[in-house]
Amino acid sequence: MTEKVKISLALVFLVVSQNLFSSEWKRRATGPSYAEYFGDVKKIDGLVRMSMLTDYIEDTEFEKKTVKSIINNRLFNCKDKTTKVDEMFGYSEQMGMGELVSTKKGDVDWERIEPDTFLEYALILACR
Known about the structure:
alpha+beta, Lipocalin
């Protein structure tokens, strides 16, 4: 592979990965050691997919790696009021920045969303 082709492939990968994880984050909750943000919402085959970011004040462990933020893409079934995590990404810096240090596939099973919970709040916003 020529140097020009390698550079072109690297640039394509950079643009695609930036677009894949870029989002306008809106702060939705704050705890003593973290903040929760909601991002992009997309409707897919009768489901809704929403990006959610947890930003940690201190380093935290995710999949045996040290991270400062985790982005998870969560699926919602608005009709059944159920949800599951599709995929998760751990980053070395806050706000999903820095190096992608760990990934994890999500849940197989759907979980029922309990009333008056943070997930119900997410469901309401995602499904509107």
